[in-house]
Protein 1
Amino acid sequence: MNHRLVQWIWHVKGSLALAPGQTSDEVFARLDPLFRETGTTRQRDGSRLRFRKRDQAAQDRMAVFDGGELRVERGAEAPVLRYHLTSRALLFCFLAPLMFLVVARLTVIVGEYNKPTPAEIAAKEKREEAKAALPMSPIDTFLGAPAPEKPKKKDPKSKDDDDKPRPTAAYVFAGIFSVLYLVGRIGQARLVRRLFTARLSTL
Amino acid sequence: MDGVRVGKRVIGAQSPVTVGWENIPKVQGGPLRLFFFTWFQPTMLFALIAFWYYAPNSIAKASTAVGIGIGFKILLLGLEWLAPRHESWRLTWKELTVDLFYVSLGYTVLRLIEGFIGSDAVIEAVQTSFDWQKLAWFIGLPLLLQAFIISFVFDFGQYWMHRGMHNWYPLWVTHAPHHYITQLNVNKGAVGNPVELFLIGLGIGGLFDFLPRAALLAGSLGLAVGTYQHINVRFNSPRWWRFLFNTTEHHSVHHSRDFEASRSNYASTWVVIDRMFGTCVDGEAELLGMEGGRPMSIRETMVYPFADGWRTLKERLGRRSVMPAE
Ligand SMILES: [Zn+2]
């Protein structure tokens, strides 16, 4: 498979045009507060800055990234800032739906293995029936709450079995995390770009 | 920091905690806003109770409750977004994603494990062998009273389990990861090591058998009250509400970085249980977490009870072997 496409899953790359004459010292000085958060280590090497984030705080504006590299390069007319960031959160979110598909499959298998015996089902039905037959409190009758009704006898062959664990929740979460991934991959790339732009344009 | 004396304890000596209702800020804004944030909580509670009380049998089912629960949480997430209590508790994409991951475990993997080890089957067996006729008197009680008893007894068990977790190391290691959260948001209640959820589930609740409608009513108390433990929204909760029920304010004190403050407000729904046993502190805190607010990754959360338990065990055994034999 295309290596770059695989990388795109959790690598965020981009470039920003800088003002003509802006030096790397100036650029990194302006971006510096972003790398002064707790858990962040940075290493400046001329026109290159590398950083690593560990246990980043929830409100760290770059919390979603665990590390990366920023470079100031010479452009045709003005210098350019190129960045390459990596995010384990994005990778994790990408993989989560696959995990839920496995869980859905396992839920079905375990459900088959744990099927209640006919005797268990009968005992439970009997108990529910007896409970429903008990008189309701006169207060509830007066206030008009619906009386409990006797549970319908279930057709043992019917597929609509309430007791069986369903894989629905796992499928729903696979969907939720797919959407979250797309929102995150696109949104976080935009946010960090906006963050850099804002820092570089303030005086 | 001096802290404030509450009973025999000094609260807020290590990390800021606001003590006393009179010191807690109120919702600011126009009359409509004030009306909304004053009446939202009681209205929702009474609406849910009325709904479950009168819903026809065909609707009064667990699946409806799951749907209402999800809808209610989405509504609250919307409120958090529109009217955050603290900017420092803002929900970010990463926080939301991580929170939802823990929520999803509860709905999928933990159910799967429960099904596999058959803890449902155990409860069922206990219920079946138990002579329910002895509980017939309970089923004859008015529905709302039944619901109150279910909710209160369940919370009572949870109170002691939670208090035990804060006082006994083997239980604490399962609960500690939950205390590493640094902000309160709607889904933060699910964040923590899964072993803890099994322990909380061990409450006496599973051994009772009741009418489905009473259980649904009790559940709506948990939803319309317990959910506010973890939320980044400020409400002007009525006095009676704050007296009886746990609130964001109470629970933020419990999550404070201040050690003494964290040893209060253990109940989940009925904070009045804390009042009964002298562990209630009325107040709020913004700075939350452990170890000065160090966040805990998902991986560390999953292994923490075992890793920290092992580390402590080794330390203790090591110390013992150094000591001269007597
Ligand atoms: Zn706790």
Protein 2
Amino acid sequence: MSKAALADGLCHALSTSRLRAASSWRNPGIASLNRQWNLPIHHARALQADAPQANDEPFRKQLKDEARRKRQAVRSTVKDGTFRSSVGKEKDARLAKWTLTVGLEIHAQLNTEQKLFSTAKSSENGEPNTNVSVFDLAFPGSQPELQKATLIPALRAALGLSCKINRESRFDRKHYYYQDQPAGYQITQYYKPFAIDGRVTLYDHDGIAIEDGHSVDIAIKQVQLEQDTAKTNLQPPSTAFLDFNRVGHPLIEIITHPQIHHVQTASACVRKIQAILQAVNALTTGMEHGGLRADVNVSVSPQGSENLGQRTEIKNLSSFKAVEDAIVAERARQIAVLEAGGVIAGETRGWTLSSTETRKLRGKEGEVDYRYMPDPDIPPLFISEDLVNHLGTSLPVLPDSTLADLTTNSGLTYKDAKTLLSLDDGERLDYFDEVRFSCTSKRVSSHEPWPALDKMVGNWVLHELGGHFNAASTPFTPSRVPAESMVDILASLHQNRITGTTAKRLLAMVFDGDKRAIDIIIRDEKLNLDRLSREEYILMARNLILENRDKVHQIQQKRQMGKFKWFVGEMMKQGKGNVEASKAEAILKELLGLD
Amino acid sequence: MFEKPSWSVKSLFESDKSSAAMPAITQKQLHHLLRLSALPLPASEVQEAKMIKDLKSQLKFVQAIQQVDTEDVEPLQSIRDETKEAEMENEITVRTLQKDIDKEEVVGRRGRIRRRTDVPAAATDKRMKDWDPLAQAPKKLGRLFVVDTAKD
């Protein structure tokens, strides 16, 4: 029998069988195949790659660390009701006798045009010592002039952290001598800060320690306004080169209550606070670029003890990893001292990236007495309720809400949602929203559940489009592939007018500068999907099966699924762009008797 | 009647209580205070003894001041207008910051705020236009101040 005759026979047989089988959709095999046939075509899973992002190294590291810890947690065993990780059993036994307590003091540079008490520009770009006023250099007789616009990002930050805003707050002087502080004191808000009693909630997806469960609330004691110091470049042995551009730049200091008890939770807290500040446009830049620094207070106390131990302060940690490593090192040091019968001295310690132990910066001998006093030159600050209300109601959506929306309503994974949130200063997320909204409003598919569509948009905006920008090493702009073009490509794909491979090709063409409308490109380049019928799929599949009996054997008997993928690939090759991967898979599964 | 003064501040420096009531000031304390104030340590024993004596009488003065009953009195931080009217005049409202709020725009569909790109940056303060911060620097390198931190 010729192939054509076979095909005809199949066609006839299948069409009659289809008529007969109208009532047999209840037959699970055929029904599932039918369902599969109607699913939107996602681009081949095998080709979906996780595009590495150029400048979110720390975030990718966080995701990797989380994945590793989850794997370790799975490996741990429950014995006598206590968790024991299979890694470092001895170390854990020792640590289990002590409770760690950590408090954070985070300094964040506010996003303002001018400094806190002078009209000098707050920009750090440009020539050294150009954005400096007489007051910044503490010339005798110079007076502070509060730049009220500073309150806008400051209040937004405090509101983002759910703080209560004090109507009246005051400024104090904190005295100490250092070459980066011309006045000999820093203006801060020690006695009466402008915001108090806030909180930040950390969830397991924020990367908190497994021991902290699903979520943990960290209370924030206060948020206060203060000045930044100059940039010092130390040349050994004792020369310092000073750039005063940064002196007087507004900072907020966020002080948490000592409620953190696990190392990963501490770094997760810093990360979360940074994310919130970025979302409300309060930060100039992130920790990676020096816009945010953390001081950490660490103490240990015997397990079960009511009182906290003596704390030490580790200053100027400038990365999330440094926060974790410094706490681990300091905890180990304190436990070693206490177990040897010693006593912890309340001192300030420092940490450098390649260290294994914190080192003492200032001890009791040189202990600094800051001699806090109210600054008599600065009148009290009065913040009106209408300003607080205005900024509160117009506050941008916070990361937790966006994350919930993206994962629940748009069906993205936590990983993808967080990536989307953190890329390109929010521009990637805006682009995603535009494309998604257009897809929805264009009624691309009126009977399709939205989550499926959003997931596709998410994949394409994050991985496909992201991959192009990465390969080209250029920063993301929403105009390179206009939202409309992206919508057209995805619509065509979704309506099965083109295959996944073609869609990717179209994206590449538009990215590289093709300005034609998508429909025109499809028509001119003849990229339309010639829909193969089910019969043609079956024919192709059967031929392949007949010609490769040994591979079939390996799949059916030995479950070597790699060979199965080979069949799919072969069909796609033979189909020359007209074979859809998911349909090929479905047919092959049916014919090979796989589930 | 006003020919002879009836009272002098000097009286507050004189002890009317026995000096045993006051703890001695140690050399360590004196040096600590001098370091905090970035003042040079005494050059000789005589000078140090004089410093401690002066400090003691100043502390007697402080003690006399501390005799005043300040129960329920808020400390004065500065002499300024503390009336309600002054407070309302100085409070920061939406109107106070309207110009700066107008320099921002909302983008995207989630209320994201950023500074508008079409608004020019704030003008440089006229008072600083012709002033070079480095003009008074005793030592500089290019546009950087140079400080010898060993000279403490």
Protein 3
Amino acid sequence: MLCAVSAPTTCITFPRSPLRKLGPRRVTVSAVAVEPDGVASKVEYTPWLIAGLGNPGNKYHGTRHNVGFEMIDRISEEEGIVLNTIQSKTLFGIGCIGEVPVLLAKPQTYMNFSGESVGSLAAYYQVPLRHILLVYDEMSLPNGVLRLQPKGGHGYHNGVKSVMEHLDGRREFPRFCIGIGNPPGTMDMKAYLLQKFSLIERKQVDAALEQGVDAVRTLILNGFNSKVNRFNLGQKYKYHKV
Amino acid sequence: MAVVAKLHLFSNLPSNPPPQPQPTPQSHRPPKPPIPIPKYPPPKPKKPPTPPNPAFKTHHNRSKYYKPVKQGVLASDDGRTILIGDSGVSYQLPGAPFEFQFSYSETPKVKPLAIREPAFLPFAPPTMNRPWTGKAPMKKAKRNVRLFGSGEEESDGVRRMEMRGGYEVKELFGGELRPRNEVLGRPLSKAEARELIKPYLSSNRQVNLGRDGLTHNMLELIHTHWRREPICKVRSLGVPTVDMNNVCRCLEEKTGGKIIFRVGGIAYLFRGRNYDPRNRPRYPVMLWKPATPVYPKLIQEAPEGLTKAEADVFREKGKKLLPICKLAKNGVYATLVRDVRSAFEECAIVKINCTGMHASDYKKIGAKLKELVPCVLLSFDDEQILMWRGHDWKSMYKRSPKAPSPVHDTTANGMNRSGMHMIMFNKGSEVARNVLDAHYNELLNCFMYLLYINFAQTILADLKKAFYMIILTN
């Protein structure tokens, strides 16, 4: 039975500007999300920090290494979280997806030093390690293929290496890898990463970003479950269709 | 000076000067050898090759022998039978603990249609059992053995004489097989297993399992390894790795050992605590590889459930399809079945790239996939395996859609979440629990929000300070 409750004060509004004060306490009633197959999944309300890795500045806008930034921009558009603050060298916005508070961050240090910003943000807001989602580009996946992992290695990505360093060498934080494919032939890896996408690749990546926002929503609301596995498998074989 | 040759000043000397020694090393003859050069016998004329013994002629190498067979006994010779049963072509010898086959893990479950050579048992005949004496057979003079007994006809019309003090033919299979539990003994603890395996992890002293899987002669080989070490490392590469579980099961059953560690294509077989190398089963060794029988064709023009036209449409589509993976020639394909199953979730046809492999290999892989992932093979051209998932394919997952619809209403243009909420009630208690959660949620939100506010206020304070400084200085 569906019962719509319109509660004008169901959740604390996260204000656009920092000057508005906290209003009187209002009671919220949250729900257990019941899926069509009858399995109830508990929503975990601990805040998430979603950090996208990239290089700041117009010069690096739209390059392969900056897909993390593009993903964060997409998420902020869809969820209505504005990135309007600067804290610990990141461009930063606070909001919520469903009932779960979420911090979106785009470190404005160059890629090799992203760890300083992400680490100090996580420490300030006391986000647990398992709720830091790192969004970055992955050369071992074909172009446009996404993958959500609960933990992993750095895959020779300097940004992830620096984040791991600043989180005391811990690797057990979830990652959202966006595939960009291997450099062709004997092309220099750094040149490949700082190149912009070709037309076909651009289209593939745009489609992937859309699917990705949905996936991030599912992850935050339900955690790592079989849906995430299905998402990963679907992404792995999405170009093997006729 | 003037020529003085005509002046007979030195008339005692000969008129012609002695001939100068000619320094021509090219036509210089070598010095004579101190002893005469030995004469070697002339090279033997090459004999024409003797025609090979017809006993060694195998029929299945490009022969036209083709004999259709049905299930049941093919040939039998007082206890030694060849039969086609549930486990394909198998050989039964009297006293053997189980039916012998050429390959225990790679015999397909499909029934064979015909055989390619006359049905012979590939083992040594039983009458040749002169025991091993370590010496050559005796010369003819010594070979005549005294025979005892009268040479008269007995009651059944046969004349019998016997050799006394002769050879005793030992029992072929060493008597009764010891029960498996007895040989294995107490199960190994994890620490013991780890200790046992450690020295063999990096060594390459192993039994290699190739495209024929677990063959009969490999059983003898594993026992010879066990004679020396308690662990036998079995490494499989290529076709058998598609179904590692089956290989491991066959290994454990036929050898009587236990697999204590298994990774990828490698299995470590432990012989058992109470293994006795002197009291082990002795199997007769297969002397040649029997010809594989003829099995029904893997690919049909119109496979089950499809017309020829539909099948051709699939094959056309398959030409444009991306292969899901590339298989190396002797690789480990342990995850192949799982990958193919998950690929079938996305698309009805799946292609695998097998360039560089032998044709018989990728056809065998196709046959195995047909059995394990149930699927229909469409084509093998261009060294790719093309498969269709079949009409009665069921997804691994329940009916729920792939990307679940989110609980709340999402508006694309960034409206704030604190609007409408859709709620589904389960039970009263759940609602009560959720209210508690909501309070916790609130607290957390407040806490984080307080942090944010704190930070924002510090920034504001700095800004204010800077502003006042500017005003004061101006």
Protein 4
Amino acid sequence: MDETVIEYIRRTVLKIPRKEIKIMLQKWGFLSRSQLQTINFQQTKENISRRVALLCQENSADIKEAAALDIIYNHVYPNKRLWSVYQMNKTIYQMKEKETEFFDIRDFKTKFKRKLHSALENVTINFREYDDSAIWIRIAWGTPYRKPNQYKTSYVVYHSQTPYAFVSVSMFRSNVPLLLEALVAASNYNHICAMELRSHSLNSLKEIVFNRYSQNFQTYYPEALQEHSVEPESEPQIVHENRKTKEKIQGMNQQAFWDCSLPKLEYAQYKLETMFESDPKMGVLHRKQPFRCLVKFSSPDLFESLKSLAATSMAETSLSPLLTCIPQKPMNNFRITEETSLISGRLSTSLCLN
Amino acid sequence: MAVLRPFDKLPVLNTASLLLVGSDQRLQQELAQAIVKEKKSSNISIHLATSLPLSSERDHLRPRIDLIVFMIDIKNKYSLKNVKASLAHVAASFFLGKVCFLVTGVGRVNYCSVEINSIWKLGEVYCSPVLFCELELEGIRVATAQRLLRMLQICAGHVPGVSALSFSFLLRSSN
């Protein structure tokens, strides 16, 4: 057990960029100051990691300390994992009953551990609390016959004052229901459902989900103000021929995106299950079966690239509401089905978003 | 007034007008500012447009265009499509030395998405010179501005002894 733990610590240190190793070891606090001073941080990472492993062996590190280092690393570099968002809710009965409820961290931890251990013996669970009332939970999964695999871990970031949890599962997707059950039981909610939102950038997900409440206060930019906000021609010799269209597009962008800094999402996925509308005479799939296709927009930063469509004149009209509604209803996986309704005896169809 | 003609307006004394057509507005603006900063003996006016045809509302305010520069961004297939669509709105007599193709973004070879062959062909078909540049670098931007300014002066007839047509023959590579 000791050998594997030391090797795990060494490999975690290898993941950290060389300039940050000293700071992270200080944050970790397992090695004393005098021990840290004996490490030469100018040598190669390989040598630094061996030295750290030696010192940890002297201090007889156990799995708890190793897990703490892993949590710190993931807290500083959360963008290496793919996070999905889950929302928990209570039934109305439960909400009315316990109105003045305060959050007890120890209670949460014991309930979580108990629930997980009752289903699966071989798991390693570690907690770490941070200032913004975020609880980072690290889980290493095993099977009934094998010890937990420390390299394939799942993380849960739970903000105790909100009903949202951010989960990152690296492998072993079959354990996700178990994890969610434990989370619900520990946090005194009733059920949990997955929001269709996934991204690598944890901070952006938090921004989108927590800022939802502030979006009711939309500021309205009246027309007169917009004209002043377009910068006046700096040189009288440079004439913009398409000035009117440029202003129009800038106005549309402002309306769609409110000129504020947008969160960083990597993709938006639309699963289409709509009817293919072709010339009836052609008879190819015309309204016979729903046409299934998947449209995915991906980019290192989706909203920036959408904004720049107008600047590079690739978009001449305003963007589709399917794209601009993403910050409001936090979703980036959509399923679009056909909705048919009978209006004055004729069939009319419109796209139904869900 | 959909088609741009070279000689349908009277020239203004000691003035030259340049029309930049391209889809990336930010780069256009930067290039225009670089041209304006250069030392010159005549008045220069630069018109920026994203595509042709130009709106007919401001037609009476517009001076005679001496040189049209079509900006193609090598990273953006749309810019080539835009330029090809705009070429239809230029009268044939413009192509006697008063049109030039400027290919930008050549510094970023990794993101190249337009075929250079298609651009060479465009230059051959329309008998116009093709210039390559990278407008994000200060030095090259200034150099390009100087080249375009010199071409503009020749096309406006400010350089005695050299006409736009003879200059374009000089620029054509001899096969």
